[in-house]
Amino acid sequence: MVQERVSGQRSLYDQDYHLWLEEMARFLEAGQLEQLDRENLLEEILDLGRRDQRKLESLLTRLWEHLLKLGYWRSELGRNQAHWRGEVTNFRVQIQRELKVSPSLRRYCEGVLEECYQDARRIVAQRAALPVELLPEEPISDLDQVLSLDWFPNPGHG
Fold first, then answer.
1. Tens-digit pLDDT profile for the chain (158 aa)?
2. Distance between CA 115 and CA 122 in Å, rounded?
């Protein structure tokens, strides 16, 4: 009987995710822990953390892109500087909001900072039609500076 219930919950999980969530919430609220689809619930909880990490990676990469554009894409600087600076501020604010809610993710950001920088470096080189070697191989600043609302690279200097 328990196996049938678990099997039915998995079926609901696969058939109607939103309805499954509502049912899991009702079971939790009623204290009916034996009714929970523990396997899928655990996977969903773990996936929430992975989603937060992927979101921060994406935001950091986009932030690095715009910082590199400001520092090194001279031919477009005059036309796009205000937009790029606005994007830098936007990504910083979003990252800071995420870190305010989950401060422990700062360590994760520090761990992927260079990887995100390297991704952004390749993206900017392609978009600017520049040899990637013209962009610094090492990140142009640390996480504290990258997230500082007051810091922007000097055009042409990083």
1. 344 444 555 478 888 989 999 999 999 999 999 999 999 999 999 998 899 999 999 999 999 999 999 999 999 999 999 999 999 999 999 999 999 999 999 999 999 999 999 999 999 999 999 999 999 999 999 999 999 999 999 876 55
2. 11
Nearest to 157 by CA among 87, 59, 67, 80: 67
Question: In 68-93, which positions are buried (b, 16+ CB within 10 angstroms) versus exposed (e)?
Answer: bbbbbbeeeeeeeeeebeebbeebbe
Distance CA(134)–CA(140), nearest Å, equals 13
Q: What are 139's two structure tokens?
A: 């990140």
Per the document, the length of the chain is 158
